[in-house]
């Protein structure tokens, strides 16, 4: 798998796209699956990678 040269761009994309499910469903009803589905192409693993602690 190719390494992403611009991880900050991916993080921005995730944050922008993830906002909608949170607005529509709220914090308690938004799942990782909702966010990943909205991203269209990124995997759950990619999301975790960019937001690991």
From TrEMBL:
Domain HTH tetR-type: 14-52
Entry superkingdom: Bacteria
Keyword Nucleotide-binding set for record: no
Entry-linked Pfam families: TetR_N
InterPro entries with a match to the protein in the record: Homeodomain-like_sf (IPR009057), HTH_TetR (IPR001647)
Keywords: DNA-binding
Single GO term (MF): DNA binding
Name of the molecule in the record: Helix-turn-helix transcriptional regulator
